[in-house]
Design goal:
Structural class: alpha+beta
Distance between the termini: 30 Å
Strand content: 35-45%
Mean pLDDT: 97
Radius of gyration: 17 Å
CATH topology of the largest domain: D-amino Acid Aminotransferase, Chain A, domain 1
Helix content: 25-40%
Bound molecules: thymidine-5'-phosphate, aspartic acid
Length: 234
């Protein structure tokens, strides 16, 4: 498969069209951004780590019967994915309180949510990705009610699979963000699953193993992502 032209360049990835209309190449960049892109750094090695981690986690989900866009990893920082019509919705699942839910609702950090919480956000940088309700999704025609129900149910299935897998590797899946797209009428999981889009804590020490190290200037960023890769590939 040959890359033809870059269709979309985001903060952390480039999506390339290929000589096949059904497939794209997803390239992981070394750029790290936070706070709507106002904080930005280039971190050597990040793209390779996220491509590897994402490939492992998509592979795991595929084995468990979750429909994803992932086809195969083709180089250090690239994977082939199915071409989807992406929905303008981000789905966040939270098992443990961290980040925006603490700021927004005054919930104490590390409070456990059982059952987990599912939230929807509008994918719109200019509006700072606001949280939205299912009614907002309906009036903005971002997805049908059936697709919303399916995203919620897929997000919770993915939670069960990933949580169990990570628990066995001494990691707590705190929260994560998913993006879905359509292949015809079929809802398919797209984007990436990496420490950029998930929060992972070490189960024994509570150590932060994700992009919060960058957001909070904690250092040890590449070391933490390398440790995540080692654990998910073990
Ligand atoms: P939040 O605490 O900032 O709402 O983030 C919840 C989870 O979603 C966290 O694992 C990071 C991820 N996330 C993204 O991947 N992209 C985003 O733009 C945002 C806001 C969150
Ligand atoms: N990735 C998003 C940004 O660049 C938000 C975040 O993950 O903090 O703003």
């Amino acid at each position: 498969m040959k890359k033809t032209k870059a269709l979309y360049e985001g903060k952390a990835k480039i999506l390339w069209e290929t000589d096949s209309p059904d497939y794209m190449v997803q390239e992981f960049k070394n750029d790290a951004t936070a706070f709507d892109g106002t904080k930005h750094e280039v971190i050597a090695g990040k793209g390779v780590l996220n491509n590897r981690i994402s490939s492992h986690l998509f592979g795991l989900l595929k084995d468990k019967g979750v429909r994803t866009h992932f086809i195969e990893k083709i180089s250090d920082n690239e994977m082939v994915v199915e071409r989807l019509e992406m929905l303008r919705v981000e789905v966040v699942v939270r098992n443990v309180a961290a980040g925006s839910i603490c700021r927004r609702l005054g919930i104490e950090a590390l409070k456990r949510f059982d059952p987990p919480i599912v939230e929807f956000y509008l994918k719109d940088d200019d509006l700072h990705d606001p949280i939205i309700t299912q009614d907002h999704i309906r009036i903005m025609e971002l997805a049908t009610q059936e697709q919303v129900d399916q995203m919620r149910s897929d997000a919770l299935t993915i939670n069960t699979v990933m949580r169990g897998f990570l628990e066995q590797r001494d990691m707590v899946l705190v929260d994560y963000k998913l993006e879905f797209g359509l292949k015809g009428d079929e809802l398919v999981l797209g984007d990436e699953i990496s420490p950029d889009t998930c929060r992972f804590h070490d189960a024994k020490t509570g150590e932060i193993m994700d992009k919060d190290r960058f957001r909070q200037d904690m250092g040890g960023f590449i070391e933490a992502y390398t440790e995540v890769l080692e654990r998910v590939s073990s």
